[in-house]
Every structure is written in C-alpha cells, then in structure tokens.
Model the fold of this input.
Amino acid sequence: MSVSLLAGVPLAPHDPILGLNEAFKSDTTPQKINLSIGVYCTEEGKVPVLACVQKAMKVLAEEQAPRIYLPIDGAPAYKTAVQALLLGGDSPVIAEKRAVTAQTLGGTGGLKVGADFLHHFAANAKVWVSDPTWDNHKAIFGDAGFAVDVYPYYDAATGGYDLSAMLVGLKKAAAGDIVVLHACCHNPTGVDPSSEDWDKIIDAIEEQQLVPFLDIAYQGFGHGIEEDSEVIRRFAERKLPVFISSSFSKSFSLYGERVGALTVLCDSADEAVRVQSQVRRVIRANYSNPPTFGSAIVSMVLTKKDLRGLWEEELAGMRDRIRAMRVMLRERLAKLDPERNYDYIVKQKGMFSYSGLNAAQVEKLRENYAVYAVKTGRICMAGLNTHNIDAFAQAMAEVQKG
Ligand code: LMR
Done:
C-alpha cells in the first residue's frame, strides 16, 4: 500500500473499566482482588450461573427450537415481560399501548439505540449527565452526535448528593434537552436521591420540558425489584416522553448474553406505533435483529411462576450479600482508622461504592496490593468476600494514611 489510510490512526485509550478488567486477568499475583468491573461474584469469588437460569437453559436445550431471526425489535414475549417488570403489570401505559419496547444488546445497546433514535429527531438537543456518571454514557451520546454536558450530583463533602446544586445545574438545560438519570443504584457513586427528592427532580424535569432518559442496569440490587423501578413508574404518570434503558446482565448474571432493552413511553397508542417503527429502523441499520438465547431464558424465568420465585430469591441473595459486605467493610475500616467516618459505605446502594480514594491512592492499591479499582475511586462491593475483605480493608487504610 502506498498511501496508508491507517498509518495516521492513533491508539485509542484503554477503556477506564473494561481495560482494568483485562489488566486484572493478566496479573499473576495470587492474592489479587478485582473491584473494578460491575460484576457480581459469590462468596467464593465466582460469577454465578443462577439456578433459575440453569433450569431455563435445560428446558431450552430440550426444546431444540430453531435459531431463526427474531423480529427486528426482539422477541414479543420478552418485550411484554420487560414492560411488566419496569412499569408494573397493571400499568395504564401498558393497557393504553403507549409503551414501546425493543430488545437490545444489553443496557448499553438500549442507550445506543435510544441515542441514535433521539439524534434523528432532536439533533440539536444537548445531553446532560450526572457529575460523575458511568463513563460510557458520555461516549455513547457523544458518538451518536450529541453535545454532552454535566449537571452537579455527587457531594464529596458529605458523601451524598447535592439536590439544590443539581436543580440549579438543570436550569441551564433548554426545553427538549435530554437528561440521563440513574433510576436506582447510581453508577459510580452508589448514591441515590431520596423518595421526596425524586419528586422534586421529576417536577423540575416536567416543568422545564426536558426529556428523561432513565438508565436502570441494577434493578433489584437497591431495595428490591419493585422498589427499584418506583422512579420509572412515577415518571410514567407525567406528561413526558420517557426513555428507559434496562439490562439483565447483573440481575440474571447473564453478562455475556447481552440481554437488555430500550423502552419508550409515548403520549398515545398512535404515537407509539410511529415511534416503534423508527426504533426498528435504527436497529435494522445497526445489527438487524437481536440474538435469541438470552432473551428466551429471561422471558421464561420472568413468566413461569416457579422460576420467577427462584429468581427473586436468588436476586435477594445477591443484594443481601453485597449489603453484608458493606457492613463488614465499614466495621473493618472503622477499627483500622477510627478517625474517619465510613458510614457512607452502608448508605450507598447497589454494586458500587465511591470510596473517596483518589487516583494516586487507587494506583498504589494496584501496584502495592494487586487490588484493582476504577481510578475515580469506585469500588465494586460485589467483588468482596469474607476471604479477601480483611486484606482489602488493610490495603485501603494503608493507602489512605499515605
Ligand atoms: C460497570 O460499570 O462496571 C459495568 O456496567 C460494566 C461496564 O460495561 O462498564
């Protein structure tokens, strides 16, 4: 080749989360600890295959259904199950046929399809994400062609969120701008607004005619399956278009199957038909249609009474184990470093804790202790267990002392 198109292509930076996970895998230190990626591990440090999933897989293996193409927007039974899980089976939005759901490649796929759809119809809108947010939010909406800005959220001084700063920040958004919100288990901080404060946030969004895009990747890891979708149901009562990306990666431990959804709440059944046709167009031009296996597992588990009960128990088990790790970590750290207040660890919800560690401390953790965490100080509580928690607490206390 004489003139190479590729010669000037620069090296892209490592992904701040997935890149770390790769580095962890190649670390040969026996006592290494992975608190980087949002993946639930058991007390034995293994990614579980849930019993409900194993049972569903057995049925599917016996059925030997042909692997035909799914419809562009996914399996109908799956879409129905997703809507019921997010909105409640008796939701008027479902009864009035105002909800559009498409099966997507994980929650990331839901965000991407939603972003591409929005860019077709609102290219000049700005996208507002919380400061901080999941890094990929900025990349997904930025690559879809949007200008992305932040609204204040986390308050380092209190380890909580700053509602007034958030509402003032949102005032800068113009009518029609898109606001990305974490419906529960905020990633990366683990800090969620209180129920009363959610009302104020929803009021502000409605008043300013913003477009909420709710990301719910951790349903069931906060308070419970129903409780964690409460915010979605409150948004659904308002006169607003609502976008929701959801995922079963964590709640079904089905990470690699890429099972997620985009759901859009519309004003009328007629509007929903038109929106659905455009969502399908976006998908067709991206990857044609989604894969069969993961969504078949999820819809079987969600709709068969015995499997559903088993899933709810197993999800509660994951939630409870993470909570137990929070309590244990706070107790260990309080002993090692009584001067500091570690209550934030037990107040935060979901898989993550914003530990307060800075980038230099996180680097020390990796270099001196083979503990992997995200450079912002985010640690995945679901990577802790009774075998590694003492070593981690010790390492964290030591790097904090400097
Ligand atoms: C995370 O935040 O660690 C997960 O959502 C995995 C990912 O794709 O980043």
Q: What stands out?
A: Residues 15 and 307 are 36 Å apart (CA to CA).
